[in-house]
Write a structure and sequence with these properties.
This protein has 2 domains: about 1-115, Alpha-Beta Plaits; about 120-300 and about 325-365, no CATH class. Strands 5, 6, 7, 8, 9, 10, 13, 14, 15 and 16 form a 10-stranded mixed sheet that branches. Strands 2-3-1-4 form a 4-stranded antiparallel sheet, covered by helices on one side. Helices cover about 25% and strands about 25% of the residues. It is globular, with a radius of gyration of 20 Å. It has helices at about 25-35, 65-85, 140-145, 155, 190-195, 225, 250-255, 315-330, 350-360, and strands spanning about 1-10, 45-50, 50-60, 110-115, 120-130, 165-170, 180-185, 200-210, 215-220, 235-240, 260-265, 270-275, 275, 290-300, 305, 310. The structure holds fructose -6-phosphate and magnesium ion (2 copies). One magnesium ion binds near residues 11, 50 and 52.
Amino acid sequence: MRTTLSIIKADIGSVGGHIKPSRQLLQGVREFVDNNGKGLIDDFCISYTGDDIALLFVHRKGTGNEDVHKLAWDAFLDGTKMAKEQGLYGAGQDLLKDAFSGNVKGMGPAVAEIEFEERPNEPFLFFAADKTDPGAYNLPLFLAFADPMFCPGLMLSPKMGKGFKFNIMDVEYTEGDRIIELNAPEDLYDIASLLRDNERFVIENIYSRETGEIAVSVSTSRLHNIAGKYTGKDDPVMLVRVQGNFPATGEVLAPYTIGHYVAGFMRGSHVGPLMPVKINSPVSYFDGPPVVSCHAFCVHECKLTEPVDAFDHPFWDYVRDKVTGKAIEMREQGFSGAAMLPYSELEYGGIVERMKKLDRQFKIRT
Ligand code: F6R
Ligand code: MG
Ligand code: MG
């Protein structure tokens, strides 16, 4: 029987600004899923990263299942009521549409799902990022699935020798899903050419070319495309199956040592380094820095093991210090040049109005 992992995450309100959800809110959402998920889902895990609550469901209903999506939607709606009662900031922020239409994709919450036949043992990773957008995973995925400098398994393991297929989405196209399929290693330069533009081209899925099995699923919907204007950075989630025919856990984690610069940070309008943090971490400095957490699990007969916190190890303290340095270096140049995003990516419209006004004040000297 096939197993499905569904992550559905939303920002439905937080304490002290866009920092973290309250304990009561998390407890309330947990209880809602516990009470209403029976007979539908087999197991679940709830956590937060920054101001976002992520629900990980394990079930046998397949991807895009209406009942499973509705459970998450209703849990977030119920949570929004609680958040409003508590006076949490930004209550219901990511629930952009009023009525549930069968699938939460395109409604505001971020979704990543994978369906597969369980291997005898099935390890996987669940990433959640805050104060950034889905392109933040482009570089770490490229390095883990296509670069032997980070993934020696590509050279050493007979199970990965054929490489991986990348499905990449043009997230600026809003009429439907515009996808290109490219194969590593043959199409490496084409893949890199697309992935350099993290705001437009986003890895959605990766498949083993040895077996055809799905390895990766990333949430790709962009809140500003859904809402017509920006309501917040998209704060992406991702599922990655690991070991055996796929890269090892440590190979998938390795690129997070870089702390590469991503879009997001304060007001979703800046560039900051992605910091690997422990599960259930808030954000802080300059509403950031952009953060990513990682739960490692095994799933067996649709039941989750306890999670391991993949970034809770002394090794990552050094990386966090390094990333802190990179954040401060970039922040030292304030709004100038590379520190702030280009117009099209600014989360706040104020500057656009200001530029229109200034445009009218310009005079051409003859
Ligand atoms: C970024 C984010 C925050 C807010 C900032 C201002 O995604 O959520 O950086 O943009 O705190 O928030 P408002 O406009 O709600 O006062
Ligand atoms: Mg928020
Ligand atoms: Mg968030």
